[in-house]
From TrEMBL:
This is Corrinoid adenosyltransferase. Its EC number is 2.5.1.17. It catalyses: 2 cob(II)alamin + reduced [electron-transfer flavoprotein] + 2 ATP = 2 adenosylcob(III)alamin + 2 triphosphate + oxidized [electron-transfer flavoprotein] + 3 H(+); 2 cob(II)yrinate a,c diamide + reduced [electron-transfer flavoprotein] + 2 ATP = 2 adenosylcob(III)yrinate a,c-diamide + 2 triphosphate + oxidized [electron-transfer flavoprotein] + 3 H(+). It comes from Streptococcus merionis. Keywords: ATP-binding, Cobalamin biosynthesis, Nucleotide-binding, Transferase. NCBIfam families: PduO_Nterm (TIGR00636). One of its GO terms (biological process) is cobalamin biosynthetic process.
Amino acid sequence: MQLYTKTGDKGLTKLVGGQSVAKDAERVNAYGTIDELNSWIGYTVSKMSETDDLKEELLQLQHYLFDCGSDLSTPHGVYPYKVDKTLVEWIEERIDTYADIPPALETFILPGGDEVASMIHVARTIARRAERHIVATMWTTEINNEVLIFVNRLSDYFFALARVLNFRKKRSDIAYERGEKVFHNITKADVERWAKQAE
């Protein structure tokens, strides 16, 4: 298979079935962001230990994301869609399982903690961006709505998973505090010292 087609030389790409669309179309942004998310998960998996039981689950998720991208790049009626409610049920079961493992939250938390947990938080934000592009697509184009539902659940899944990863590594969630609570103990001497260091 030839890797370059030259179609993109004019700012166009082809959907499944052969229809040409602009490369900056919302549909292309949607499945492109899903691809970005899939790549990030692959990178995250590469950072996990060989004995981590979550690697297989994330690999399965990568296959599901590939299905999502395929459906988003397929105009309605060209081929049967791949994503259905069973994928939504799968991810909801995972969310419910993980939500009960760490202690219940009493405040907002900041992304961070263990390296892999932090990377999963990045995945959460990419999933949110993908969802925004999918929603923008659906206002003007008929899409597989099950993909939207699945991607909507993804950010909750990643949030729950990141908390579990931190819990396993005995890393506490970082509680969000309002700015004045964080900085009200800063003295004038602190500010002068920081200014001198910056010189």
